[in-house]
């Protein structure tokens, strides 16, 4: 057999090319690679669906600030309101724990990427619900409450195979509830559709075998539903909360409803139900308020039902005369009553448990309870008690921990110091009020734990953010640039948060501890105020300590020397100091230690005609003219907020207005499109 010739040694292809040809070949290869990468579409089906269908439908005709972050030019971890997994729901992507992920631009092209959650409450969404929401195979939770979404609930939403929590409350959704919604029964834990304009009867499940045994919360209140009581609801054995109030339901209430052993909160008020209540309700935990506004209902806990005997002709005549006379009065007030009924019902409902779930302590003592607010439904008592903590901050009234849950997620725990908090009777109403506060620039209280021995835990989302104090005063390398657009955005966000506390709630809340350490800044330079309302929880001695700490830090209004109680005007003063701190880059104080009396420094600079020297050098970088770019106007506003006389200070709504007008005049090249937006630019 003839021998084969020896195998030729390998050689590089480019050795056959002259030098100039090789350089051209290299450039071509690089160009092909670069442009193919730059122009490539994300290969994750969920990302494509999110960008092409969901985003345009939710935002409507106008660009939405929150949805602007859904952009392949930004790392996936910076897309607002979303949670992801890679390779299925078991492999959740923990952006907060991995700095590399937070800057990974290629993550959105991972074909194994799946969307787990959309959480955009109070995000100014003005579009509609796209039917494509039902196409996400791994979508577990959808929170789009308190927006301005219109149109119907799409039939296709019932096809989402993994959806367990659905909150569309507080929108302008209309039309009938699709029967397909009950297709979610095998997984559904909470369904909140209240405060919309939904109408028609509540449809029966398409599949008679649907049991919804996992469903704990069903809230259809404040809509225009009509027809008979949905009897199939009494088969939802795991139901803990049922609210059908302020609708147009009629007929009798099914006796089988009394058989729901786990039901702890029931509200059927302000409908047209008639007949006797189930006999067991007279001995149950439900009070008369749960059934009020239904004139035809009777039986305990309401008034006794009539004996059924006929009325005399005289009685009938008296009733007729009374009705005719009353009709005149009713006609004059009916419109106002109808309009006010919904308002009264909402106020009453806000004074109730407000989306709270109580759980008994797992040790069997029965005294420890976890109160869960909206957005904290995923937390359980076991999760909180078994979380491992890392101390983040200590104050004279408690300790803040970063706590890791068993599933790998993080929460922020504030353990109040023993003896610092009021007793439970005084504490819980404040906790309920704080738990209802929702605003982009305020940290949301997700849960509260009252232990058997009196220990109290406030539970918040964990934000891997830096405080404004650190960003302004940390001298270590790697600190992001805080130019004027970003500082203006922070100041405006803080002002909006305070304005919401002062005037945006049914019962106003005073922050009481405004300072740069209590302002968290995320990667988009969006600020979130923390610790608001905590002084209301404290015993007087501890509340006084909080005021004294504010004095030491230079945020204390002059009138607090004599009065111990903070108010909205003392918050305005503290905001003025904060705005000076933002503009000047100096720590506030009263001339002692490393802090400075910032208002006094500004007054001296004005007298000496050296006003420009008070501004932080970093603020001035890139500005063409401090007057044209709004720096001087902001300085005047800050000094107005710091007026010695409380009555001379503006309220926070006026502060917000002036800062917004100030922003509209800023058109220097320093302001990028993202700096002008509500999103900003990441660190």
From TrEMBL:
Keyword annotations: ATP-binding, Glycoprotein, Leucine-rich repeat, Membrane, Nucleotide-binding, Phosphoprotein, Receptor, Repeat, Signal, Transmembrane, Transmembrane helix
TM ranges: 12-35, 315-338
Entry's localization field: Membrane
Membrane topology recorded in Swiss-Prot or TrEMBL: Single-pass membrane protein
Record's protein name: (wild Malaysian banana) hypothetical protein
Keyword Phosphoprotein: yes
Family: Belongs to the protein kinase superfamily.
Species name: Musa acuminata subsp. malaccensis
GO molecular function, one term: protein serine/threonine kinase activity
GO cellular component: plasma membrane
PROSITE patterns for this protein: PROTEIN_KINASE_DOM
């Amino acid at each position: 057999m003839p021998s084969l010739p020896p195998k030729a040694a390998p050689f590089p292809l480019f050795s056959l090319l002259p030098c100039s040809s090789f350089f051209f070949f290299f450039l071509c290869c690089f160009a092909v690679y670069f442009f193919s990468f730059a122009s490539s579409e994300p290969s994750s089906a969920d990302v494509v669906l999110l960008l092409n269908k969901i985003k345009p439908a939710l935002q409507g005709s106008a660009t939405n600030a929150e949805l602007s972050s859904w952009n392949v030019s930004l790392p996936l971890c910076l897309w607002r309101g979303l949670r992801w997994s890679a390779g299925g729901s078991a492999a959740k992507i923990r952006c907060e724990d991995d700095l590399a992920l937070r800057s990974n631009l290629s993550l959105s092209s991972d074909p194994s990427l799946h969307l787990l959650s959309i959480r955009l409450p109070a995000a100014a969404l003005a579009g509609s619900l796209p039917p494509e929401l039902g196409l996400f195979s791994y979508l577990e939770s959808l929170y789009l409450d308190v927006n301005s979404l219109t149109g119907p609930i799409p039939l296709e939403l019932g096809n989402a195979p993994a959806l367990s929590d659905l909150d569309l409350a507080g929108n302008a959704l209309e039309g009938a509830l699709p029967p397909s919604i009950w297709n979610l029964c095998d997984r559904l834990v909470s369904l909140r559709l209240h405060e919309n304009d939904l109408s028609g009867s509540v449809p029966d499940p398409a599949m008679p075998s649907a049991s919804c045994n996992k469903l704990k919360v069903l809230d259809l209140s404040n809509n225009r539903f009509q027809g008979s009581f949905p009897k199939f609801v009494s088969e939802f054995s795991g139901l803990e909360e049922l609210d059908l109030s302020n609708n147009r339901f009629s007929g009798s209430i099914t006796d089988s409803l009394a058989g729901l052993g786990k039901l702890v909160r029931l509200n059927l008020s302000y409908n047209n139900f008639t007949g006797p209540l189930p006999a067991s309700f007279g001995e149950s935990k439900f009070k008369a308020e749960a059934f009020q506004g239904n004139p035809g209902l009777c039986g305990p806990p309401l008034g006794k039902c009539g004996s059924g005997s006929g009325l005399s002709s005289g009685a009938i005549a008296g009733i007729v005369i009374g009705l005719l006379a009353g009709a005149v009065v009713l006609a004059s007030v009916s419109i106002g009553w109808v309009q006010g009924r919904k308002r009264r019902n909402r106020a009453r409902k806000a004074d109730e448990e407000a989306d709270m779930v109580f759980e008994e302590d797992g040790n069997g003592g029965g005294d420890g309870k976890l109160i869960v607010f909206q957005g904290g439904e995923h937390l359980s008592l076991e999760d909180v008690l078994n979380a491992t903590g890392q101390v983040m901050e200590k104050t004279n009234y408690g300790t803040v921990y970063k706590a890791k849950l068993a599933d790998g997620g993080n929460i922020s725990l504030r353990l109040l110091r023993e003896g610092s908090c009021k007793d439970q009777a005084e504490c819980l109403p404040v906790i309920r009020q704080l738990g209802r506060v929702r605003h982009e620039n305020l940290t949301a209280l997700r849960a509260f734990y009252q232990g058997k021995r009196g220990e109290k835990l406030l539970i918040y989302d964990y934000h891997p953010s830096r405080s404004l104090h650190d960003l302004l005063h940390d001298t270590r390398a790697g600190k992001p640039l805080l130019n004027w657009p970003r500082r203006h955005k922070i100041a405006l966000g803080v002002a909006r948060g305070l304005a919401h506390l002062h005037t945006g709630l049914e019962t106003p809340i005073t922050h009481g501890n405004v300072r740069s350490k209590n302002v968290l800044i995320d990667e988009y330079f969006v600020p979130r105020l923390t610790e608001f309302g905590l002084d209301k929880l404290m015993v007087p001695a501890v509340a006084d300590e909080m005021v004294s700490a504010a004095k030491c830090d230079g945020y204390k209004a002059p009138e607090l020397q004599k009065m111990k109680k903070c108010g909205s005007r003392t918050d305005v003063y503290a905001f003025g100091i904060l705005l000076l701190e933002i503009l000047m880059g100096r720590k506030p104080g009263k001339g002692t230690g490393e802090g400075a009396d910032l208002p006094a420094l500004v007054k001296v600079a004005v007298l000496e005609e050296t006003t420009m020297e008070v501004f932080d050098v970093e603020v001035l970088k890139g500005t063409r003219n401090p007057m044209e770019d709004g720096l001087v106007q902001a300085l005047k506003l800050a000094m107005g907020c710091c007026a010695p006389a409380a009555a001379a200070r503006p309220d926070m709504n006026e502060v917000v207005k002036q800062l917004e007008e100030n922003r509209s005049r800023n058109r220097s090249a320093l302001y990028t499109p993202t700096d002008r937006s509500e999103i900003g630019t990441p660190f």
